[in-house]
Amino acid sequence: MFEIHDKILLFFCCFALYMSEVNTEYAIVPVILAVFFSSLSTYLDDRRFKLGFFLIYIACCHLLPDCFVFLPLIIYEIALYDYQILSLLILFPLFLNFHLYSLNTVTMVFVFFVLGWLLKYKTISYLRLQAEYNELRDTSKELSLLQEQKNQSILENQDYEINVATLNERNRISKEIHDNIGHLLSRSLLQIGALLTISKEVTTRESLIALKDSLSGGMDSIRNSIHDIHDESIDLYSSIDALVKDFTFCSINFEYDMKSGPDIKLKYSFIAIIKEALANIIKHSNATKVSICLREHPAMYQLIILDNGTMEEPKQQKLTKLIENQLYYDGIGIQNITDRVKSFHGNINISLDKGFKIFITIPKGNYGKDSP
Q: Which of 23, 93, 240, 306 is 20 to 30 Å from the Cα of 176, by its Cα?
């Protein structure tokens, strides 16, 4: 757009000079040629075409000397390019037809030439600055997005670390209560039991029995509280990650995508299922790669465990037949996995295609009273 404005300005300057200097019956021809070649250069916008049109127009200046007046408009197309030295070719028609041009025409043509060069320099500088600005703006926006992602990741990690620290603290508190207060109460109950054995007075025995009942109730309350604290402190990701790190049989890939923590019973079941599956791989598989994926969906939890191991043909055929009939046996250790999944009203699918694959889905919500 800026180049078009520059060309229009140069054209009117050259046209004004042309109208003041030329008065022939073919005066329209140089104007048409100048507009034609300048428009083609703008439309095709290729340096090679621009150079070609410039050379053709130089030849036109030799055949039609009046075309010389519009040379600044054509030179604008190749100004500031690698071959701008070719602008000196304007001297060729000037020398050949010098006697046809007035000093005023030659002077003004060179003034317009300098004007065109300055306009082209201004336009190229502006476009370069605009491109740098756009690049800087895009880079800044990209960096801003990356910074937001990093901040979000830091916040998520911070929340996770806080959660882990909270769970660890709960574990520590439950252990201290169990080791200290629990032992003190247990020892007190034993001492009261000994006193009941040797005490003969009815009043004393009744008081000791009441005290024993109170301490027993307190012991049960503390025991329940310890179990609740310990159960809530179970971190599913950390527990499975520990199993994955301890698994040295082959390489293992663990993918965890859980937004909310499932019920404590389901946590224990997931951990037990994965532990059982990894044990089966060690005992019965020649796999070199294992993948575990635990993912949460809006209405269900999904657990996928697969390996690339192979199985002997007779054993594979027998297992395939059992799987088709949904009959599992303890020999390969998947019966316990199946029972756990069914207790949560979930579904389990086992596939032997390109390895051994266990696909488990468990619905969210109430799992039923028969949950383990």
A: 240
Q: What is the Cα–Cα distance from 50 to 57, expressed in whole angstroms?
A: 11
> Comparing C-alpha atoms, which of 53, 58, 54, 66 is closest to residue 26?
66
End-to-end CA distance of the chain: give it in Å, rounded: 75
Neighbours of 240 (CB within 10 A): 20
Residues 6+ apart with CB under 8 A from 338: 328, 348
Distance CA 208, CA 220 (A): 18
Average pLDDT in the 238-265 region?
85
Q: Which residue has the tokens 């140089």?
A: 30
Q: 45-49, 139-143, 147-151 — which one is most confidently predicted on average?
A: 139-143
Distant-in-sequence, close-in-space partners of 261: CB < 8 Å, separation ≥ 6: 236, 267
Contact 276, 333 (CB under 8 A): yes
CA distance 106 to 68: 9
CA pair distance 342, 367, nearest whole angstrom:
10
The more confidently predicted of residues 248 and 208 is 248
Per-residue model confidence (pLDDT) at position 359: 92
Quick check: helix, strand or coil at residue 79? coil
Band of residue 37 on the pLDDT scale cut at 50, 70, 90: confident
Percent of the chain topping pLDDT 70: 74
CA dist., res. 2 & res. 8, Å (int): 10
335 pLDDT above the threshold of 50: yes
239: closest CA among 212, 266, 205, 206? Answer: 266
User: What does the block give as tokens for 66?
Assistant: 């009046």
Q: In the predicted model, what is the mean pLDDT of residues 139-154?
A: 84
- 75-to-89, 141, 314 alpha-carbon distances in Å: 10, 40, 86
**Contact between 307 and 274 (Cβ < 8 Å):** no
